[in-house]
Here is the input.
Amino acid sequence: MEALIPVINKLQDVFNTVGADAIQLPQIIVLGTQSSGKSSVIESLVGRSFLPRGPGIVTRRPLILQLVYSPKDSKEHRSAEEELRQQIPVPASWNPISQLSNSMFSSGTVNLEEWGKFLHTKDKIYTDFDQIRQEIERETDRMAGNNKGICPEAINLKIYSTKVVNLTLVDLPGITKVPIGDQPEDIENQIRNLIVKYISNPNSIILAVTAANTDMATSEAIKMAKDVDPDGRRTLAVVTKLDLMDAGTDAIDILCGRVIPVKLGIIGVVNRSQQDIIDKKSITDALKDEATYLQRKYPTIATRNGTPYLAKTLNRLLMHHIRDCLPELKVRVNVMISQFQTLLNSYGEDVSDKYQTLLQIITKFASAYCSTIEGTARNIETTELCGGARICYIFHETFGRTLDSIHPLVGLTRMDILTAIRNATGPRPALFVPEVSFELLVKRQIRRLEEPSQRCVELVHEEMQRIVQHCGTEVQQEMLRFPRLHQRIVDVVTQLLRTRLPATNAMVENLVAIELAYINTKHPDFHREAALVSGLLQSTDSIVDDSPMFRHKARATPSPVSTLFKVNGGSPPEKVLTPQKPVNLLPEVPSQQSRKLSDREQHDCDVIGGRSDRTANDIYYSKVEGISMMHLNSMGDLVERLIKSYFYIVRKSIQDSVPKAVMHFLVNYVKDNLQSELVTHLYKSDQADSLLNESEHIAQRRKEAADMLRALQRAGQIISEIRETHMW
Here is the structure.
């Protein structure tokens, strides 16, 4: 099981190279209030003084500290090639000083007891721990300023020694309340958020440090640990400054867990005081004094307290914790390898042959565009209609319903129809339905179909333009990768659609013009309605007045009008018959009110008809004129029905032919000629380089994804090297 902690250290090194914390690795988080003794505990575990010390806030950046046990007979971490300082350039000519320098530093780390390395200084080796402290201070000031500010970016330090146990510790800034120096007003919240970010990792062990000379019940470290670990499964408490408690008091109840129980235990330690640090008291002497104090003050529990016991406990807890987390960690690494491999594939590979790549993108785009129209794309849109489905909706729902909503007689009153009939007959009375009036009126209604047809073309054109944004995720990724190529493709498609729009509009206009050019009254669907004309003439033959005088006059002296209306032989019936109404299969037209005569028209009628007492003969002729008006109204009804019937025929034809014209002149033409247009305009020798200039953020993301994928693959390889025997 001892091999598990070095495995985690290797994983930490792997992911430190990419600067990613996506993998939550097991590690020990040191948590405590400001000046509670966190740094002293860590130094006691290492056995060397190397952390910045002083009053106030000193730890202002997280420090990820890896302790690596490296015995002298181990060759895993020791190398003869590593130098103890940065490489000194060796001159070409022989130099005794440089030769001596090389001989001094060529031994590397073979014979060293302990040394340190920082991630940000690469392979530079530090054997002087005062230099390690200075480097920590320098790096902290560089990122966090030199006036008590904090920075969440961590410093990575690895210490190899023959005296340490394998541990991974994270030293965090101490919890504070009042901002000092150039610290912001919300410094408390910033520090808390930074601490919560680390201790929320379910794979971490929380080392809650509390000073013994404070009340355990008011410990901020214990409180924050309980917030994220309410069961206490991964919290270990450390009580520092046992020697600074008030006279007459002790920490026996605290250390035994009778005040606040902690599941993983409570360990007491005695650290160096500030005066000991000033006097440069060694940690070895401090550990001896700690053991003496515990034996004298707490003899019954001395073996379960102290820094050596703390180091062994942390090592044991971390190994068991790593063993428990390792299966889930392995699954997580494998899942992320798959995810980042997919992500890297989506960004595409580096362009080697630009002309081949350009042609592939053009072909892929044209294929995806046509597939979106035909509905054969691999990625079907589920949130809205697009492509061919949207065009079908425009044809049969939007355009079809719009035509169905147009009433055949909209904008046409009964008076308009009667006026057209009279105007078509000129000075002669109307005996038959004038074809001129019918054609005039029906053409007027047919023209109303042109505007919806043109709007249908516009909607399909807009959808064809919008398909560019919905033609497959693979093509969209290429478009994001090469923004200039994307813009040029959009321009070519837009230009192609724009050139086809006039021809399509002209064809749709011609379809309506064709219907206006010839009113086919012999149409098979219209022939039945045309038979109403003879039906009207037969029905008016039986229209007579029921007055005796009219019947007497009709028998005595048949008038020209009665002779005109009498087509078939026989005497008229006894009572007045209304015109026969044929069966109407079409929607009824709302009844139109007759227009009232103007004063001028009424005056003309009075002048022509006179106001004197009329004779029986006058009354007779007035009756005949009434019959003529009834005949005229009947012809008005007939014309309305004829208009409705023929309008339905034309509307049905337009509703069928306009989508066919749009498909032929616009949709199918663009599908068939899109790739050739793109090749003609884009596949040119002088444009390939400029079109395939990759977007900077895509190139950066590809590099990050590739680095992360390599790190994950390396991590998977490291985890796979762990054998079952290593875990027990």
Q: What stands out?
A: The longest helix spans residues 616-682. Confidence is low (pLDDT under 50) at residues 82-94, 96-107, 540-594, 607-627. DSSP finds 25 helices and nine strands in the chain.
